Amino acid sequence: MANKVLPWLMSTQMLFLAVMINAKVPALIVFGDSSVDAGNNNYINTIAKSNFKPYGRDLEDGRPTGRFSNGRLATDFISEAFGIKSLVPAYLDPKYSIKDFSTGVCFASAGSGFDNATSDVLSVIPMWKELEYYKEYQRKLRNYLGETMANTMLSEALHMISAGTNDFLENYYVFSGRSSEFTIDEYMIFLTGIARGFVEEIYLLGGRRITLGGLPPMGCLPLERATNFMSTSACNDDYNKVAMDFNGRLKALADELTAKLNGSRVVYLDVYDKLVEINEKPSIYGFENVEVGCCGTGLFEMAYLCNRRNPLTCKDASKYVYWDAFHPTERMGYILADNLMKTSLAQFV
Asked: What are phi and psi of 28, to 5 degrees?
């Protein structure tokens, strides 16, 4: 048996090496929140789930995966654009193995944030635990590919981090804990410090290509429009200003860490400007609705409130910027991914 297994293993490794040689980015490794969670929350005890219809209805097989979308996420489109694969698998999904994860894996958890207190709100996977899973993954990868090949893959892989929105909208502005402890400026400094430590940890673990995703104009999310009682259906300008300020800190952090961490490229990914542009001129992009989500009334529904029994869910999600009250549609995810591939991520192509 050993004589039969060894040639197969060697041929598998040679094939993977050939893929790495021909691909500038051999794998996508994803951390963060619901903006990039491919279904890890399916396997933990939390209400922050989307593994039921109508979520996933526009995927090829119409099957909900745990993605907070009607279809694929921006990270899935980015993976495909790099020629890797069309869906980045969730690490906790038992149907996948290290062979699947060797070209891309998602550790993200919907409801998480840089702040541990944020993940406690909905009992989801904190960012420090995502890093622990990443370390476990590295051990499996080295056993699968061998030390040298695994180290090469990890250094060439694109490590993507998308978090922060929940820290403000699910934590700071909802509960008194952090807001009584920090001013908003102090909280941004606190979160930026955590983000710095997270990137530095990935670097120490061998990652050299790392992206920091910026916040969207979070005051324009349907949920925030609906609860902005000072101006019906208008964006919450205060929240948008916080997003812009925090994004400026993330961009500065990316530049600082690239200069500090030898051989690294830490890149800030801007999604704010494109979303503002689409919010202001949706028809240019073929959208008919930007104020509410497709699911239900589109004002408050997400997770279990967005379900197949809701008669108000729209027929064509491609006409909507948002799928539920918090998350973009698949088409919006594609537009964001396409814009990033043509701008910040073009250097890796």
From this structure: -115, 125
User: Are 160 and 212 contacting, i.e. CB atoms less than 8 angstroms apart?
Assistant: no
* pLDDT of 7 over the 50 cut: no
Amino acid at 27: A
Amino acid in position 215? L
Q: Tell me the pLDDT tens digit for each residue of 271-325.
A: 999 999 999 999 999 999 999 999 977 677 777 788 877 778 999 999 999 999 9
Q: DSSP for 65-81, please give it.
A: -S-SSSS--HHHHHHHH
Q: What is the pTM of this model?
A: 0.92
Residue with the larger pLDDT of the pair 232 and 140: 140
What are the angstrom distances between the C-alpha of 24 and each of 19, 79, 137, 138? 9, 12, 21, 20
pLDDT of residue 305: 82
**Looking at the predicted structure, is the pLDDT value of residue 56 above 60?**
yes
Q: How far apart are CA 227 and CA 300, in angstroms?
A: 9
What burial class does residue 207 get, using C-beta atoms within 10 Å of its C-beta: 0-12 exposed, 13-18 middle, 19+ buried? buried
Structure tokens at 341: 């591939």
* Best CA proximity match to 170, nearest among 232, 123, 230, 233: 123
Map tokens 């990935």 to a residue.
202
What is the set of active-site residues? 34, 324, 327
Read out DSSP for 261-329? STT-EEEEE--HHHHHHHHH-GGGGT-SEEEEESSTTSSS--GGGS-TT-TT--S-GGGEEESSSSSB-
How far apart CA 343 and CA 251 sit, in angstroms, is 14
Tens of pLDDT, residue by residue over 137-167, are 999 999 999 999 999 999 999 999 999 999 9
Please give the Cα distance from 72 to 112 (Å, whole number): 20
231 falls in which pLDDT band (50, 70, 90)?
low
Half-sphere exposure (CA, 13 Å, Cβ side) for 56? 18
For residues 95-105, give the mean pLDDT.
98
Residue 248 makes CB contacts below 8 A (sequence gap 6+) with: none
Class of residue 16 by CB neighbours under 10 A (exposed 0-12, middle 13-18, buried 19+): buried
